[in-house]
Write a structure and sequence with these properties.
The protein is an alpha/beta fold and 251 residues long. It has 2 domains: 135 residues, Rossmann fold (3-Layer(aba) Sandwich); 95 residues. Helix content is 51%, strand content 9%. The chain is built from 10 helices and 5 strands, in the order βααβαβαβαβααααα. A 5-stranded parallel β-sheet has the order 2-3-4-1-5, sandwiched between helices. The longest helix is centred in the C-terminal third of the chain and has 22 residues. The protein starts with 11 loop residues before the first strand and ends with a helix. Bound molecules: zinc ion. Zinc ion (ZN) binds next to α2.
Amino acid sequence: MATAGGGKLFHAYIFEGGRGTDPLRAAEAFAKAVHCTGAGEKPCGHCLSCIKVNHGNHEDMLYLAREGNSIGVKQIEDLQARLRGKPFASDRIIAIVDEAERMTPQSQNKLLKTLEEPSGDNIVLLLTANAEMLLATIRSRCVSVRLETAPGVASDAFATLADDFALKLAAGGAYYELSRLVGTVTERDAAGDFLDALELRLRDALLAARAGERRAELSRFIDCAEEARRGLGGGLNVKYAFKTMILKMLS
Ligand SMILES: [Zn+2]
């Protein structure tokens, strides 16, 4: 499938962005550009299609959000029924699944069918703060778009703290040392920022590491940080999430 501009479009994308990013806005901008019927640069912002997207009433845009805590199988089935139908006002239906990580594993497996056998030129956009929380089978079927945090959002305090933590960790720091470092982070959002900063450092170190043993250790640290992030996302208490993370890192 190709756009008027010649750029290739895919059937499924993951828009991944943590705090400080706005995956929904990014996905809407993308959908608007795809749907835009104006001449020249897209989205033009004033064709009928752009206006409809702006007003949230474009016939060929579908939004899926969680009901309660999760996105259930029935919701995915409804979405699939719509995707099997014809677009009303354009060439394709674009479905946006907000907080895609809220899909239950059953929902994800259900959706997988659509990703494996897309209908028409339809596009599915999965939005998430953390793509790691989606099944690998889903991820492998999607083009990944990682949204960058606006500069200045991640505060220097967390960067410094993450530096200290990563250094202590590399130096074989004791539990109480690491625990004391993160003890100042008590807010959930702040904990997310700290984990972002920490992961960034660990990934940098991983890229730089040559020795297999060191690499394996760093990958494990990253897994632990990811797990803590998932725990926080799932409502885990900040103190407990950090405690578990550090214990696992040191085990
Ligand atoms: Zn337009």
